Protein 1
Amino acid sequence: MRPPFVLWFVAIVTLLALLVNLPLSVGLQFPLKLGLDLQGGTQLTLLTQMDKIDPAQREAALESAKEIIERRVNLYGVSEALVQTSRLGEQRRIIVELPGLKDASAAANLVGKTAQLDFRQEPATPSADISEAIPTGLTGADLKKAQVTFGGSGKQAGPQVSIEFNEAGAQKFAEITRANVGKPLAIFLDDLPISAPVVQQEIIGGNAVITGQFSTEEAKNLAIQLNAGALPVSINILEERHIGPTLGQESVNKSLIAGVIGLAVVMIYMVLYYGFLGAVADAALIIYTILVLAIFRTGLFLIPPVTLTLAGVAGFILSVGMAVDANILIFERMKEEIRWGKGKALAMELGFKRAWTSIWASNVSSLMTAAILYGMGIPVVRGFAITLAIGVLVSMFTAVVVTRTFLKLLIK
């Protein structure tokens, strides 16, 4: 591509990135997504009870419980939640981080309940005590889906939970309702009766409604728990911790100060050491910063936006220093070519050409390291790896395209 066209391309991309970072209209908002350590929220430490689990199955049970809790949190709508496992001696724990969620008790109820649903029929000799109801074998494992609905009037008014059974469950439900016409069929949740509707007729199709004195929030949470499934192990809440927004804001402020200082030091150094070439590199560095922040906010609309944690901010600040690494390699090769008698235009072309191998090898090794950190690291390390990888990729673009275009136009 010819320099003027590349310059226009760089200008348009930079302008779009500026609009993302500094929105000029109400309808164009791309806020940075902050992790728990930056925006505050709730952290739960859950202790799993493995006494009744076969030792060979404990790791599988732990992972299964983690996946179920993740589904519950996602269904609840907490964005950028983090669920991870940890081991301390023989203890197996699940750590749940819920950014922005201030109600720790609501979070504990959501992730910690077992939600064991089952249907029970009255014994052969009817009793007033509903706790003597006999299990029918129809449980939450036979569910296909559950959702919140609203009744019409009377006792059926208000929030309800509509459930649909899978094929096997629908067949069981039809047989149970056929055998219990005119009798109550009790619905138990975690061994507590929540409803005991009287069966009017055989129900074919596998659909039912759980009624009770539910609030809308209670009905929503019940549907979430039923959809996500029952936990394979019992869980005790070891710790509930609320991280206030003040601590998060303080961390953000310190990170911003560190970032500004780092950027300023690098820019001043480049100008002092390389003079005019350093100023060109600084212009490319400013564009680099704008582009990286825009990618953090939007994910280029192809991947989810980056969730910034303190470790992620550290990765970004580190990448600022690395962003000028390619420029330094290019400038040093240019200086060598000029010392050997080459003209400035030819020295620039040769400098870029001969520095490219080193730039490519350096950045590929950094990307490989970031990939290893992301694949094998804990979530905090993954945040560092993502921001570092984005910084490396954008720095290659700004060094090879932006800096080169500026120099071509200025030398011409």
Note: The domain at 36-113 is CATH 3.30.70.3220 (Alpha-Beta Plaits).
Protein 2
Amino acid sequence: MIEQPLFYALAVPAVLILGISKGGFGGGLGSLAVPLTALVVSPIQAAAVLLPILCVMDVHGAWVYRGRWDKANLKILMPAALVGLAVGTFTFRYLDARIIRLIIGAIAVGFTIHYWLAGLAAARAARGVDALRGSFWGAVAGFTSFIAHASGPPMSVYLLPQRMHKTRFLATTIILVLFMNYVKLVPYAWLGQFRSENLYTSLVLLPLAPLGMWLGIWLHRVVPEQAFYRVCYLLLFLTGLKLLYDGASEFLSP
């Protein structure tokens, strides 16, 4: 089991944010979890520790939002995501921690910039289902999901412009993420990511999963969503900048 106190100081809020996001509040802010924990341990280990916790959350979310997803989008996104997962599986060994930090940092910063710019473009007409765009962003989502559990940004880039009902949007993302996470269990095991240290750490953090999801439901009712978004997206942006700085510094250091 990981014994660094600083790891748990960051992992506890990271898991709670995951639960809050999957509980229906905070959108794609679950992407913050790996960047946060990757400030202490390697991004590879952070992703391995969080995957079993994500799988438990996904089952609960799928039950809560059962039958409300968008089948037309899922028919496009799921096969494309498999392509991205395959690319992630076979390139994972060649991506060292520095590269993964840079990728995660770029995802975090890019997602927040996209979120802020999307607010400026709110008056644009809604887009429909698009097989070409959906296949591209679905594949990107599969890849970013594999390396950092960060499928939220590319999925949002594709799905948010459709302006579907928030419940349908959430249910669609939950089912796609559940699909990807359970597929990932096989290659993660094959790559040796489920060693005892990681699994014991997952078990220690697992009780936070239902608490986080309950908090997501509760926050949805009592906290102004816009205020919550502003704080969390700012934190995601700053965390992304820190990871970009760390990754670049490690490359430049002798």
Note: The first helix runs from residue 5 to 22.
Protein 3
Amino acid sequence: MKNINPNQLLTFAVVARMKSVTRAAEYLHLGQPAVSGQLKLLQERVGEPLYHRRGHQIELTPVGSALLEYAEKLEHAMHQACDYVHRLQELDTGILRIGSTITITSYFLPEYLVMCQTRFPGIQIYMNTGNSQEIIDRLPELDLGFIEGVVKEEKLPDDYDLIPWRDDEIVLVVRKDHELVEKYPEGVPLSVFKEYQVIWREPESGARQLIEETLVEAGINAPINIEVMGVAGVMGSVRAGLGIGFASLQALNHASPDLVPLRIKPPEGLVWHLNLIAPREGLRSRAVQAFMQICNGTQEQS
């Protein structure tokens, strides 16, 4: 069955509303023969007269009146689609699905999320949290991903880019009354990880993986007796006196004053890379582009 040309239906709706082919042609910025031609093709497709002339106006037949209901619905849908596209272009609407590790979600992204919602309140933001590998696995369901540590680009889908975003530092977390504060005020050697009880993050943690890789390179075998989930778990356990821990320096900036950060492996410390995963250029929605500009500090002030 041959489909009806939607342009013919839209033209028919305008002609029916204006009751004149001439006025409809002026409204549509078309020649009168072009409008008449579309009406003729539509009428041939229907197989019955859609209207007849009464003086200088047209009057719909019962079939034409019934068809007009569908034509007006199509016209309304077209107006809604055009309005939606316009609002997308103006960033008055849109959906942004972000996947991020718990640390980045808690301590790095909040200010950027607030800025985005303030400047573009029409954009709906949905957050998904998980470890770095879980975020990579969920990329087909996401618009942007924020992950920790080194990731080989061959692990990413072909249509995504791995973009360096920010550098942070992994530091040792101790209570302010811990002996390490006085013993190593400028920073601790890696040997403390085998000499003291350590509160370890979960195995998938980017921070833990960095610590483990660094210890292996140094030939240090540190025992793992206590594991907790997330930075909050580390801080709570250290605060309770269960041992020493490690976390992002940015996270420690939000901690209570009874916890002290100590540089690991001074003087350079342990640099921690945070990366952004985004669709390749040309595949990014306007909402994605706007949020990336905000995160990189290049979004113009409104």
Note: The longest helix spans residues 62-89.
Protein 4
Amino acid sequence: MKFLRNFLDSQQDRFEKGGRFEKLYALYEMIDTFLYSPGEVTKESSHVRDSLDLKRLMITVVIALVPCILFSMYNTGLQANVALNEMGVSASGWRSVIIDFLGSGYDAQSIWSNVVHGALYFLPLLILTYVVGGFWESLFAIVRGHEINEGFLVTGILFPLILPPNIPFWQAALGITFGIVVGKELFGGVGKNFLNPALTGRAFLFFAYPAQISGDAVWVAADGFSGATPLSLAASSGVEAMESSFSWMDAFLGFIPGSIGETSALACLIGAVILIASGIASWRIMISVLIGAFGLAFIFNSIGSTTNYMFAMTPAWHLVLGGFAFGLVFMATDPVSAAMTQTGQWIYGILIGFMVILVRVVNPAFPEGMMLAILFGNVWAPVIDYYVVKANIKRREQRNGE
């Protein structure tokens, strides 16, 4: 790799101030720092130093996402193969050509067949997200003269994982554009955005194109097949009807229809262990979300309802269905859009947990709720931190005045 290091060093003058490609310095810096650690050191007074920089932080999050990524491809292919076998047909379009070329087939009992088929839905969305989102990130960095932040490395993976497998490519491109431009860059970029960009993009798609982001037909990657998710089945037919079609263990492991990467609570749990052990994500937020959600779900269980089936859904079921586990681990804990203070994180998490159950139960027409709950928490996070800090200052002033 010495040749590559020497080549990058030889090109640096072209991209620095006064160079021929000065305006493209952000692109050069992105490639250089992605491949190698920065060579610059602090020359002024000493600073507090930490072995964890933004690049290592984002890479750790990506590592924590690996279980979700691998299982997403397997389960997406599994659901598609089962559906195609039921209908007695094969995949259509370019995917069928690749499957025939690889000889992987549509065997739902084959791990290889399921992974290949699922990858043909996830990987194109991932590439599309990085190309389109990377374009906007680079454009804003060049115009502002800023560095291209590593935060998009995670956003680019999170976004396709929270989409249904059958979403049209042009809508995915439009969604990540809205998430990056409106959800982040218009507020000044990384560190200044108060909304999670990936969730902002998905929320835009949900309200702009509800037919392609909701409904029974979008959750299984098979043309012409309609299959309800457990949450929608519980909301429309009751928890007992849902339990007759899906077991709790299937939902925990992730063998159910849903967004590409959100179905496996187990994969999310593995990611949570990695993020908490590495100190990347706040365990306070995770626990407080559970407290808020489980508390309100228990209250609704106790009240009961003869007209609203969702009142009967237990806290254990809420945990493993929809995007609850994925949002709990990877979205609610976003260090930029979440609360910063320790006390604020408890309040923020409880608020999100409370809101997701409120949306799921009281508004069964929208049985998910996690996306809106986290975005609602994002909006209130700065206010929560403001009053927590203000209260701390007031207590210190009172102690000093005694």
Note: The chain has two domains: 54-227, 276-402.
